[in-house]
Write a structure and sequence with these properties.
This protein is an alpha/beta fold. Helix content is 42%, strand content 15%. Strands 1-7-6-2-5-3-4 form a seven-stranded mixed β-sheet, sandwiched between helices. α1 packs antiparallel against α2. The chain starts with a helix and ends with a helix.
Length: 250
C-alpha cells in the first residue's frame, strides 16, 4: 500500500470516527457514566482499524485478566502508543491538555473518556484524583505516560512522580507497560515522534514504513500502599528499564 493511500485511508477513518461519535457517543457524558460494552467495542475496533491501515502487528505479553481497575503507565515513543495500548486494553488515558486544542482529534479524545491535565500544574492533581476515582467507581482503568514527553525508545527517560499521587489516593495498583517498535530497524528509527518534528511530518514518516512490529511488555504490578510518589516512580523506572533491556537482549 502506498504512503498516499495510507494517508487517505487514515483521513477517512478519522471521518468515520466522527460519524461514530455523533451516532453512538454524542449523548454520553464520560465524566458521569461508564461506556457500554458496545461503545467499548467500537472504540477498540476504531484503534484496530488504524493498526490495519498502517500494517502494524502488535506482539503483547500482557495478561489482561484483572479483578479491579488498575493504573497503567507506559514509556512514550509515538502517538501510536495510544493506539497500541487501546488495541489491547479498554481504559481511559490521562493526557496533556494541549491535545484538547488539536482540531478534530480533541473531540474524539474527549468523548472516548480522555482526562486532560495541564503540565506543571500541581493544583490539577486533586482534580485529577477525583476524576480517576469517579472512573474507577465505574470499574474502568486509566493510563498515562509518566516520562512527560516522547523519546527515541532506546531507554527510559526520568519518571515524573506527580501523577502517582492518583495511585496513592485511589489505592489502585500500578502496572508498568513497556513499548518498543521495529520499523526494519530495532529500536525503530523512523517512528519516534520527538524533537521539533510536526505531527503531520511524523504521520508522513510512519506511513512510509512498509511493516511495523510493536512489542508491548508488562512489568511487575506495584502496590502504592505505604509508599510516596517518588518511591513509586523509582520502582516504575527500575521495572521499565529492566524489561526494556531484556527485550533488547532477546
Amino acid at each position: 500500500m502506498t504512503r498516499i493511500f495510507k494517508i487517505i485511508r487514515l483521513f477517512g477513518h478519522v471521518i468515520t470516527g466522527f460519524y461514530l461519535y455523533i451516532r453512538y457517543f454524542y449523548r454520553t457524558n464520560p465524566e458521569l457514566q461508564g461506556f457500554s460494552s458496545h461503545q467499548l467495542a467500537l472504540i477498540k475496533q476504531w484503534f484496530d482499524h488504524i493498526l490495519n491501515i498502517l500494517n502494524i502487528k502488535v506482539i503483547s505479553s500482557l495478561n489482561m485478566a484483572t479483578d479491579k481497575p488498575k493504573i497503567y503507565v507506559s514509556n512514550h515513543i509515538s502517538w501510536l502508543d495510544i493506539i497500541v495500548i487501546g488495541h489491547i486494553l479498554s481504559l481511559r488515558f490521562i493526557a496533556k491538555s494541549e491535545i484538547a486544542n488539536w482540531p478534530m482529534i480533541s473531540r474524539l479524545a474527549a468523548k472516548s473518556g480522555t482526562i486532560f491535565i495541564r503540565r506543571g500544574k500541581i493544583s490539577d492533581l486533586t482534580k485529577i484524583s477525583q476524576r480517576v476515582k469517579q472512573v474507577m467507581s465505574l470499574n474502568e482503568s486509566v493510563a498515562f505516560f509518566p516520562e512527560g514527553k516522547t523519546s527515541e525508545g532506546h531507554s527510559i527517560l526520568p519518571i515524573y512522580s506527580g501523577l502517582f499521587q492518583v495511585a496513592i489516593d485511589t489505592g489502585a495498583n500500578v502496572i508498568p507497560l513497556i513499548l518498543s517498535y521495529d520499523d526494519g530497524c530495532y529500536p525503530a528509527k523512523k517512528l519516534p515522534f520527538v524533537g521539533e518534528q510536526s505531527f503531520m511530518a511524523n504521520v508522513w514518516a510512519v506511513t512510509g514504513v512498509k511493516r511495523i512490529k510493536v512489542y508491548l511488555d508488562c512489568g511487575q504490578e506495584i502496590s502504592p500502599e505505604s509508599k510516596t510518589r517518588k518511591v513509586i516512580a523509582n520502582e516504575v523506572s527500575q521495572k521499565m528499564s529492566a524489561v526494556l533491556l531484556k527485550r533488547f537482549a532477546s
